[in-house]
Amino acid sequence: MPSNAEPAPVSAKPPVTLREVAAAAGVSVATASKALNGQGRMTVETRERIRETARRLGFRPNSLAQSLLRKRSFTVGLLTNDTYGRFSLPLMAGVSDALVDKGVSVFLCNVEDDQRLGQLHVEAMLDKRVDGIIATGKRIDRHLPVDLSNLRIPVVYAFTQPDPGAVGLVSDDAGGARLAVEHFLRLGRRRIAHVSGPASFAVVHARAKAWRDVLKENGLAVSEPLLGAWSEGWGHEAVEKLFGKAGRDGWPDAVFCGNDQIARGVIDALRERGIRVPDDVGVIGFDNWEIVAEATRPPLTSVDMNLSTLGREAGLALLSLVDGQPAAPGIRKLPCRLVVRQSCGGPPE
Amino acid sequence: MPSNAEPAPVSAKPPVTLREVAAAAGVSVATASKALNGQGRMTVETRERIRETARRLGFRPNSLAQSLLRKRSFTVGLLTNDTYGRFSLPLMAGVSDALVDKGVSVFLCNVEDDQRLGQLHVEAMLDKRVDGIIATGKRIDRHLPVDLSNLRIPVVYAFTQPDPGAVGLVSDDAGGARLAVEHFLRLGRRRIAHVSGPASFAVVHARAKAWRDVLKENGLAVSEPLLGAWSEGWGHEAVEKLFGKAGRDGWPDAVFCGNDQIARGVIDALRERGIRVPDDVGVIGFDNWEIVAEATRPPLTSVDMNLSTLGREAGLALLSLVDGQPAAPGIRKLPCRLVVRQSCGGPPE
DNA sequence: CGGCCCTGAGAAAACCTTTTCCCAACCCGC
DNA sequence: GCGGGTTGGGAAAAGGTTTTCTCAGGGCCG
After folding, report:
1. Degrees to nearest 5, angle at CA A9 with A6 and A11
2. CA angle B223–B224–B227, rounded 5-degree value
3. What are the structural domain ranges in chain B?
4. Which H or E run includes A256?
5. What are the tens digits of pLDDT across the range A226-269?
6. Residue A347 CA: distances (Å) to CA of A74, A184, A257
7. Which residues, by CB, come closer than 7 Å to strand C?
8. CB atoms closer than 10 angstroms to residue A79
9. Closest CA to A260 of A61, A119, A66, A87
């Protein structure tokens, strides 16, 4: 039973093709193509007439057809296994932002830690003829569960362990740690403890080494870092270890934490003990996870890894690789940035 | 000066085409295509020979060419303006997971709140002939800064305000609030306060209304909800308002919070006042942001909006729209789920 | 006035796959 | 032996664009 007052379908008419534009302008498709791309030779009038016709008809070239011919799809794949963490999102946004302006779109590929899923996504990308792939992870020292080593298209690794000989971008963790410790030193702090995550993370060692190096360079006593978990709970425990012993003289006057959650735990635990932050002890975190850093009391000074810049750089690096520019393989470290809030206080008077 | 010991290029050889497979198998491309797709008629031997040849050569059909012909690209666009929040990530992962198995890839489009960026991305999607678009936001009651209303391809809205007449999926905030309040009631709590976010958010009212409704249905006294910000700080303030007045008798024995950060603030503030959670007061949050919910002391019972399920459903809904199945327009609400931890205690003895 | 070059534009191939139509050969029954 | 049906497989068009080649006409120089 046909309905007689059906609303117009949402507009099923197919997109305008170049052929239609050419017909409407009274030229051949070849000429139309050249007119729109600024190629070939023709009178200014012809070119303008075609352009105007295309505009009037709302012509937009079919990317699929273009890609098929040019062997460039203006598309890249973004692999990640960090779908619940907070690292990948700014990174992905950075990639996307860097590329959208160049007309390149990004396929989101969530591979978790699942080999099958990784395989599936990589094959889908290859079939769709992406121009390149960016691999991203939640850990700088771990591989994604996929083999990207013989892919015939360029690959850039961002915030994850690259294949040997590939180009990788990571944050400069040691530099970030330096930033923090040197900030403490500038403020006159001298007994700077370090509380960080599990020893199984490479960044833990990189940051700890930088912390120790800066202390040594400044002729200060060096102790062992306290390694535990990436959690608030561990921050509490660490405070117990550091400030549990009697004798205020042995207490640190600054704590550099491996991430913001630990720092949060440290600050809370210090307050519960009646130790003032920043007056008695300064605290610096890592990651600059704003929602945590701004909720601590006082707000937390923290090292920002500039992940969206990292993503942006990764996108641009991939693009130049796609354009055939050879890139120096190896790992490029991007600087961190210290975001100063109120957990370190000012210089001593 | 040509180098004489150059390492072999990473393998610049182009992918195997169907034509090559056909030639290798000694048949025409038509036959090869039919053999691989299970179409047409030919002897079992021919079919197997072609398949074997394709396998041996590592043939993979060019999606671009297929898409061009079939007028289906097996790609969809995912628009979001929540690149730093925690809502979009599980949602995006859900979409991606639901689609990858169907061979559909997802374009990530970060539009922030930028009209230009939105326009850019939508045009790129259209040019790339996506089969459909999923629009996602960080707020259920706000539009994305793009017009998706006359697009000739299907659009599904997930966790954002849909256009009238479009299909939208959101979480059932009222249902979620019910879950929380009824849980309190089952545990014997009777004086249940509600602390939530800014009145400018629609969800604040939806949840508050459900809270009030459940109380009324159970013949309990109803007060005004405390509306403020989505922050820990507001949780602290709210505790001051609720528990500042003398007279322990007037105090609530449960607080239902509009999100986990508020709940965190509430729990911390209660502890600072020496009020025990859950013994004296039960607390429930919203969002089930694990990293927060598990860090509160005690760990926080919270309402989970099942965002990855929401994403999955959005993906499937879009797919069936793309397949031409008409979908009932309007907003579909997906149930929430209460994740019980330790901030509510057991039933009273 | 003839040859040459330049200009403006079109025809056709190419990209890779799918699908429709077609054809030759073979088998069967009469 | 011949018409009709079936079987196995190929030719060609289609999808939308880009690019190379070709070509006709006109202007210029000698």
Report:
1. 155
2. 145
3. 18-61, 72-172+307-336, 173-304
4. strand A254-257
5. 999 999 999 999 999 999 877 777 899 999 999 999 999 999 99
6. 52, 9, 20
7. A 26-31, 40-43, 46-47, 65, 68-69, 71; B 14-15, 17-19, 29-30, 33-34, 36-37, 39-40, 59, 61-62, 65-66, 68-70
8. 27
9. A87
> What would the pLDDT profile of A306-342 be if each residue is shown by its tens digit?
999 999 999 999 999 999 888 888 999 999 999 999 9
Distance, in Å, from the CA atom of A141 to the CA atom of A203, rounded to the nearest integer, reads 8
> Do A18-61 and A173-305 agree at the fold level?
no
Q: Beta strand B105-110 with B132-136: parallel, antiparallel or unpaired?
A: unpaired
CATH 3.40.50.2000 matches A173-305: no
For residue B167, give the H/E element and its range. strand B167-171
CATH topology of domain A18-61: 434 Repressor (Amino-terminal Domain) (1.10.260)
Chain A residues whose beta carbon lies within 8 Å of the beta carbon of residue B11? 150, 152
Strand C nucleotides, any atom under 7 Å from protein beta carbons: they are: 7-12, 14-21
State the nucleotide closest to B16 in CA–C1' terms. C16
Model confidence over B15-50: pLDDT tens digits?
Answer: 999 999 999 999 999 999 999 999 888 899 999 999
> Cβ of B117 under 8 Å from any chain A Cβ?
yes
The confidence band for B142, taking pLDDT boundaries of 50, 70 and 90, is confident
Classified by CATH at the fold level, domain B72-172+307-336 comes out as Rossmann fold (3.40.50)
Query: Which fold is adopted by the domain A71-171+307-335?
Result: Rossmann fold (3.40.50)
Task: Report residue B318 as tokens.
Answer: 């879009």
Q: What is the pLDDT of residue B27?
A: 93
The letter for the amino acid at A188 is G
Report the SS3 class of residue B92. helix
DSSP string over A147-183: --TT-SS-EEEESSPPPTTSEEEEE-HHHHHHHHHHH
B60, B64, B79, best to mutate vs chain A, most A CBs in 10 Å: B64
A104-162 tens-digit pLDDT:
999 999 998 899 999 999 999 999 999 999 999 888 888 888 889 888 899 999 999 88
Report whether the peptide linkage leading into residue B278 is cis, meaning its omega lies within 30 degrees of zero: yes
The CATH label, of 2.50.20.10, 3.60.20.10, 3.30.70.20, 3.40.50.2300, for the domain at B173-304 is 3.40.50.2300
Q: What count of CB pairs under 8 Å joins A to B? A: 140
d(CA A230, CA A237) in angstroms, rounded, equals 12
Other C-beta atoms closer than 10 Å to the C-beta of B235 total: 32
